[in-house]
Amino acid sequence: MLLDDRKIIVTFATHWAGPEICDGLLAEGASVVCQDPAFADPSRAEAFVAGRPGLTAIADTAPADIVARALTDLGRVDALVSNDAFPAIRAPIETAAPQDFRDGIEALMVFPFMMAGAVVPHMKARKAGKILFLTSASALNGLANYSMYAAARAGTNGLAKSLARELGKDNIQVNAIASNYIENPDYFPPELLANKEAYAKMVKNIPLGRLGKPQEAAHLVAFYCSDRSDFITGNIMPFSGGWA
């Protein structure tokens, strides 16, 4: 299998395509520690891991604690999938709230920065590792009235490119998947997808004429976590059906 015996961390696993990503990694043979504050509720944690052998759910929120827990449970960390989520707040620049921007930067830039800093010493010691940031294609094309969100995502794309140069000598590959228009409840609620008029309006600017499936995102994540991506680093991969 593509990820046989790989040990992987996935952050904010209940968000975006997190459940499908966990399923995809497990199906390829990986063991996964999935983190989400929601798992502080034992019933949510139990429901998430049910039927998913090889998956451990943790509720830790501090990056150093997440990595320490993963090392305890897995023994090592081969890959970090930083699946960071924050609402895409629609706000023209003249009315955008600076605190909303600060909160977005904290969630979408500072947290992944700290996760990388927490896991890198372990990866350097092993001279091997992969860090994958899940960002947004809005940072590549720009998105009117979503400047706060796009700017925060662009910052993490820059982080990926810089860390790729910094960590290459330690055989650590750092990449980002810049997605947009992927079916998920965070950005496309079920009631929106059920609205045929709204759906047609959404997909008219996508060359492939449809939204992406979260399972398709999971396949791409698995590739970047595998040894098939060993010669790829500093790559910001657009994943948006041709929109970016």
Structure, explained:
The chain has one domain: 3-Layer(aba) Sandwich (Rossmann fold). It has 9 helices and 7 strands; from the N terminus they run βαβαβαβαβααβαααβ. The chain has helices at residues 18-27, 42-49, 63-74, 98-126, 138-141, 147-167, 190-193, 196-203, 214-225; strands spanning 7-10, 31-35, 55-58, 79-82, 129-134, 172-179, 236-239. A 7-stranded parallel β-sheet has the order 3-2-1-4-5-6-7, sandwiched between helices.
Secondary-structure blueprint:
Layout: E1 7-10, H1 18-27, E2 31-35, H2 42-49, E3 55-58, H3 63-74, E4 79-82, H4 98-126, E5 129-134, H5 138-141, H6 147-167, E6 172-179, H7 190-193, H8 196-203, H9 214-225, E7 236-239
Parallel strand pairs: 1-2, 1-4, 2-3, 4-5, 5-6, 6-7
Helix pairs in contact: 1-9, 3-4, 4-6
Question: Tags for this entry?
Answer:
Rossmann fold, alpha/beta, 244 residues, globular
